[in-house]
Amino acid sequence: MGVKERKEREKVEMRDKILQSAQHLFLARGFDQISIRNIAEAIEYSPATIYLYFKDKNEIVHALHQDGFRLLVRHFEPLVKFTDPFERLIEMGNAYIKFATTNPGVYELLFVRTEPMEYVSNCLDEEWKEGDRAFDVLFQTVSQCQQSGHFKGLDTQNLSMMIWSFIHGLCSLGISNHIAHVKEARDKKLVVDAVMASTYQTFQTVMERLKS
Amino acid sequence: MGVKERKEREKVEMRDKILQSAQHLFLARGFDQISIRNIAEAIEYSPATIYLYFKDKNEIVHALHQDGFRLLVRHFEPLVKFTDPFERLIEMGNAYIKFATTNPGVYELLFVRTEPMEYVSNCLDEEWKEGDRAFDVLFQTVSQCQQSGHFKGLDTQNLSMMIWSFIHGLCSLGISNHIAHVKEARDKKLVVDAVMASTYQTFQTVMERLKS
DNA sequence: TCTAAAAATAAACACCGTTTAGTAATTTTG
DNA sequence: CAAAATTACTAAACGGTGTTTATTTTTAGA
Taking the model in full, what pTM does it have? Predict the structure, then answer.
């Protein structure tokens, strides 16, 4: 009676195929190109079929979301080798920026677009495990920094928030090309990279000053 | 021969009416509700008529964009009364956050949505005068802070960028409800407000430490 | 008043997410 | 093995979007 097992396997495979297709469309041609019809065409099924595997488009986007968070967390994992918490914190900033700049699409999906947020607002908790975990890594590191005598007198939660806000603002502005207009150069990508790099350096200087 | 003058006046009035309608729809019912058909219905004209006054939808959004930047700059104008540059800088943070939280829709239009950006990438410069002016106010203030002995050894442009990035990250995360998931409280709006307020306080503390 | 220009529109085109009703394939049952 | 039942799939439609084209209505000037 391997029929049931096979059917379940096929169901999972189809789900994966849909998600893979959606991600490919998203990364290759932008958020707007994730259309049910485009996905359907890519996997060579009718649009209606997709609704047998996902409740609606939001559910697809949310699944991609989870994958994105897992990717972010994976960027943080190698940082355990840095035993000094402050050093690890700085490396986390690097890892975060690297994640955002090498995966601008994924970053946009995770932190810029608001559509999935609204969806998540409904089916609370548990869906955001991955996101919470990412923040928790930061929080723990900041906490350890404080235990080592850094950032005296600052609330851990708020300081973590501040650091994340800064890095997010940097990445978000960079990715959305809001920075390019400040400078007059032509090649936007280079400008963004340069500004982000040097701004981040400034951030590091500021953090250094706050160490003791 | 006042006919030509009247026609020109009517042309401008119609343009304004379209923009006013678009802004109303946007602020009242969100970005998605800015549809050519909705605008047309609101001003009691056919959808096609709108294309006699605007090249496409992007041109409408971009016009709203400019208005948004003018509103932001207007939030900064009262700050000239603060003669101490550092005090003015802090007040600018307050003004920016106030702008973002009291006009989340406008803020989203200006700094979160990317659609208008792409449009702007084509018709470079001149369209962004207002945006540049807003950043310039910040830059000048930071520069004056440094002339008063604050923020020693930090590049002005980058430090300005850092400050903007931080505040933007805070507002952006707050508005997009990315913060709410960190805490487990139910009333998101309150949580966002609280976290933003206290985080901002932390930021102020950090800035204070950097004064000398 | 008649004509030429300008302004507005109806209708269509090609998309979108989603639903419904019906077909085709597959599995289970008699 | 054939019939019934279940499952998998899809064609077509609904109401929405931005935009274009051909046509009609309104207006202005001779």
Answer: 0.82
